[in-house]
Amino acid sequence: MSLLKSSSVITIAVSLFVLSACGQKAADDSQGNMAKEGATSGTGVTATAIINADDTPGEWLSHGRTYSEQRFSPLSRVNRDNVAELGLAWAFDFGVSRGIEATPIVSDGVMYVTSSWNIVNAINAKTGDLVWRHDPKVDKSRAAFMCCDIVNRGVAIWGDKVYTGTIDGRLIAIDVSTGKAAWDVNTIDKSEPYSITGAPRVVKGKVIIGNGGAEFGVRGYVSAYDAESGEMLWRFHTVPGNPENGFESEAMKMAAATWTGEWWTAGGGGTAWDSMAYDPELDLLYIGVGNGAPWNQNLRSPDGGDNLFLSSIVALRPDTGEYVWHYQTTPGDTWDFTATQHMILADLEVDGTQRKVIMQAPKNGFFYVVDRETGELLSAKNYVPVNWATHVDLETGRPVEVAGARWPGKPPYLQMPGPLGGHNWHPMSYSPDTGLVYIPAQEAPFAYGDDPEYLYKEGMWNTGANMALAALPTDEATFAAVKAMLKGRILAWDPVKQEAAWSFEHQGPWNGGILSTAGDLVFQGSADAHFAAYDAANGEQLWSFFSQTGIVAAPISYEINGEQYVAVASGWGGSYALAYGGVAPTGSEAGVGRVLTFKLGAKETLPGVSAIPARIPKPPAQTAPPETVAAGLGAYMRYCVTCHGDHAVSSGILPDLRRSAYLQSQESWDAVVRRGALSDRGMGNFGKFVDAEAAAAIRAYVIGQARMAVEDGDATAN
Ligand code: HEC
User: Fold this and answer.
1) Which is the most buried residue in 102, 206, 318, 480, by most CB within 10 A?
2) Ligand 1 center to residue 579 CA distance, Å?
3) For a substitution probing ligand 1, which of 643, 670, 685, 686 has the most ligand atoms within 8 Å of its CB?
4) 476-501, pLDDT tens digit by residue?
């Protein structure tokens, strides 16, 4: 089956939900409100505190709670027997309706959590009252260099400072007691399309941060900064640069031998945009490395090669950034198969021997158990349906590819998994009690094919794949068949046996990160706007709460004055939400992002939602010939789909272009699209890439979509 589109329209009802803000604890601009009961200023997070996190199970001091990133809470007051009594203790409104991916940090009764545009909120973890708020005033025009929403995955805390990375490439240290910046350093070359969405980690007094932007034309790296002064201490590049400029290290020289052609001209990619873990005993820092840029390997490294360290787990010395070992999950990546997915450290008995392992379920669909001392592959098994490789050869450590899967130069090809991955950034969780890894797994196939008009442009979405093939099919039968292939589940995976213990099916992909607890519970939010608790042993749903907007972030748990809290940030968003939100389950629609915090016996409620019928204003007349509309579709898929949605149907997070007042005249359209009238609000200036003719063609295509929606009665024309 091909995902090629035809000319009719998919009928997708998009409703607009408006949340009333009454009764909410809104994030106003007040700075420095005093903390209420349960919150004290200042904190003493040191290496020992995070290393010994299990001595203070009531805190959540680091992104994955511990350096091992297990996301398991040893708290058990909330458990299988009483979880039905869980209720909303407080809700904190971020006051924004863009994607929220942050894991909160809780220390000394204060919760630190980021929302859209990198705003850091310090909240009294007991009451939900704002303590302070730090707005780093990011350069919003850089949102144009972000594939996957203006998200952030959270802060780190160390000593008396909170650390956060920003979409405009800064790393900021904020004083925990005042909320004011202690230092603010630039981590990127601002002339290049880098961005930061990941949470920093602090190891031995060094703040470690990576970045994103592979497809836009960058070369990935991670850097370490002194936690006190903000001075840069080391930088490790994840892919080699132009050999003519010399190599930064022996590791880069080794990596360069696995590339061909002039890969550096498009940056090469390999951005380390999310996962890290640290083993204090081995003193190894692990980083997850991203995909190649462009995706199409023929265009990146024309004579092949493994292209190190793309799609790899790399172990480094945290003091120096020195390379120790790597394991590459997808040699010669050509599918956007990142290995930036969450990594978990655990000690497992493998074949009768106790092993120190690192576990990862990267996008490519295989679950890996790797010896974290040496990088040796111990086992690998597909955790979702995979059709690009038959298996991973344990002798060579390499996937055995299926003929035709390496699509460049070949006919279009429908593959599982695709660029959304069998698992994306949404954190998984490992429970040492059950021995299971709980994976927010998904199935979303993708049709890969050559882009006949590929031309690398820095700052644009460069994949070298024909994105038009990624449009959902429009004839009803094929559409229904493809929609049925979109799946999402909690997958409880036994990493020793490499098999599923149980799974819980959601309505589709792109569900939240996962927390497991010593209360024999698993917590997860979902695309269909629910936050729920499951029995960790068998997946039975034991409790759920309607969150009014889809949840993608991961929950945490903490304790104050003998009461256990479970908290999660809500707010639908991210790549799938923006591009395919139109086919996401009902309820996912953007609403006001919040922190939702629960405890036993609490009975707070969220204000009601009122649905407003979708209305499409009378679209302008279609004056363009069909060839122009077709060209407009091509340009739309190249430049606009990642934010404004498949078939110009918005998920409700960003404006639905079919309803836009700017569609009414070419003049107002061009002002936004080609002259940057809304660039300070995150709508890029496409003047450099989209010429007048292409802008008119895209408008003609959107007019066509609007007219079809009105004719089909999907929306009301006024
Ligand atoms: C990186 C994400 C991103 C991409 C890619 C993108 N846009 Fe936007 N666009 C936005 C955001 C964010 C807004 C809303 C700005 C605001 O809040 O006013 C927006 C708003 C708009 C609006 C105004 C809608 C309204 O009625 O308020 C138009 C028109 C528009 N975009 C057209 C396009 C076109 C055409 C393309 C492709 C050439 C495109 N955009 C690509 C993010 C994007």
Assistant:
1) 102
2) 13
3) 643
4) 888 888 889 999 999 999 999 999 99
